[in-house]
Amino acid sequence: MMSLLGRPDVDAGEVFVNFNQNITSLAVATSGGYSLYSLGSVDSTLDKIYHTKSDELFLIERLFESSLVAIVSQRAPRKLKVCHFKKQSEICNYSYANTILAVKLNRERLIVCLEESLYIHNIQDMKVVHTIRDTPCNPQGLCALSSSSEHCYLAYPGSVTAGEVQIFDAINLHAKTMIPAHDTPLAALAFSPSGTEIATASERGTVIRVFSSQDGSRLFELRRGLKRCVSIVSLSFSTCAEYLVSSSNTETVHIFRLDRSATETAEGHGGKQSSDDWMGYSFFRFLSKTVTSYLPTQVTDVFSQGRAFASVSLPEAGVRRMCAITTIQKQLRLLIASQDGYLYVYSIPTVEGAECQLIKRHDLRLEDHYAMDIKGLNSGVSIGGAAGVPPGGTGGAGAGGSGGDGKSAAPVVGGGGDKPGGSYASAVKGDEPAGPSSSSA
Asked: What is the torsion angle, in degrees rounded to the nearest 10, for the CA atoms of residue 131, residue 137, residue 139 and residue 141?
């Protein structure tokens, strides 16, 4: 979800942490290799699925519960490798003209984000089906891909000076809508599980907004804080889509409840309510309209913005953290994976304003210290040398978009020119063997 290239925390030995699309596993990359963990019993134990020694990685994405992972190493930051981790084999690799800043996956598409272009691959055969060129400069690799195959949308910044979100239909390959989300540039993007909603935050970090990804209408406006501007690091919908969680460079993680029933009631006066509830609601609306009619727009916005349902205060500020909310063994859990090497598990209260209770703290470095010494991934394949130059790679990866400026040329297939076949497509849909019988030279 985040690129660590060129960041001081990499040099300081921080770990890369990343959840898969449906929050069933956690990827952890350190200087010595990477590990994959199952989150099914995270309340008590963290079950290791896989560990391997490899070059230091700064990007790793697992495709749902399949055996497919997409990785980018610090030694070759322009080369994407798609691997079958259970077979310890490389399926294919692609080299790009510039550094890969982000990689996103779902069951239909694989997205590679460069600073000024986006490549859309068909994940069934890894061919490039489209290239979005000359995008606004995006040095952080900010983009989001819906995990839904039905609403397979890609989002990326539409401006370097304002918080515009460009929504692109990654199946039908056309721009869908542009959302003027914020006055200042974007800092975070996240799709809901269905892909029909997108959450946004700007560099100011005080307000989080939720829009319809289909027509761009604003659905929710949530206030993270009033006192200070912060850098939003992580933004994520819960797997049930009823909550939104955000983390920043502060020590506080905020959870917002997306009360769609209240919104529907307010709009259509529907549902059965007690007279007391309805009178209270009516009085609140009357008071809000009366008071805010005499106040500046900036103040009335504060009245209408939702506040955090719950929050968590962690020991230290300035640590990058990835957050997720999912149901584990029928219980709603907040998971916070931090790049100082810890995974926190919290319960989420049912009453607004109550505290989240810490259930478990897993030490990811300790877990990796006792990992099995499994044969390194693709030990027969050289991934050193000049960055982005595949060993013996030839041939084009397929055409996408139109034109070419040299800065965003079509990626080159490496690994001896082998392309993924039918077995690869089967592995995308399930967890079957994938990759060519001899995947490396």
From this structure: -40
What separation in angstroms does the CA of 334 have from each of 16, 125, 269? 19, 35, 33
Type of residue found at 259: D
Calculated CA dihedral for residues 218, 224, 226, 231, nearest 10 degrees: -100
Higher-confidence position of 429 and 159: 159
CA pair distance 50, 409, nearest whole angstrom: 35
Answer left, alpha or beta for residue 298, where phi above 0 means left and psi between -120 and 50 means alpha: alpha
Cα–Cα dist 148/192, whole Å: 9
**CA–CA distance, 265 with 414 (Å, rounded to integer):** 56
Residue 231: DSSP 8-state = -
291 Cβ neighbours under 8 A, 6+ residues apart? 303
> What's the rounded Cα separation, in Å, for the pair 388 and 390?
6
pLDDT tens per residue, range 158-179? 999 999 999 999 999 999 999 9
In this structure, what are the phi and psi dihedrals at residue 286, rounded to the nearest 5 degrees?
-60, -45
- Asked whether the beta carbons of 110 and 127 are under 8 A apart, the reply is no
d(CA 277, CA 257): 19
Beta bridge pairs of residue 198: 191, 211
Copy the structure tokens of residue 27.
Answer: 């990827």
Tell me: the pLDDT tens digits for 205-229? Answer: 889 999 999 999 999 999 876 556 7
8-state DSSP, 149: S
User: Which distant-in-sequence residues (6+ apart) come within 8 Å of 375 by Cβ?
Assistant: 52, 88
Q: Among 253, 157, 251, 228, which Cα is nearest to 198's?
A: 157
Q: Which residues sit opposite 244 in a β-bridge? A: 237, 256
Q: What is the distance between the alpha carbons of residues 86 and 228, in angstroms, rounded to a whole number?
A: 46
Which residue in the block uniquely carries the two structure tokens 């989300």?
Answer: 181
Question: Quick one: CA torsion of 411, 190, 340, 185, rounded to 10 degrees?
Answer: 80
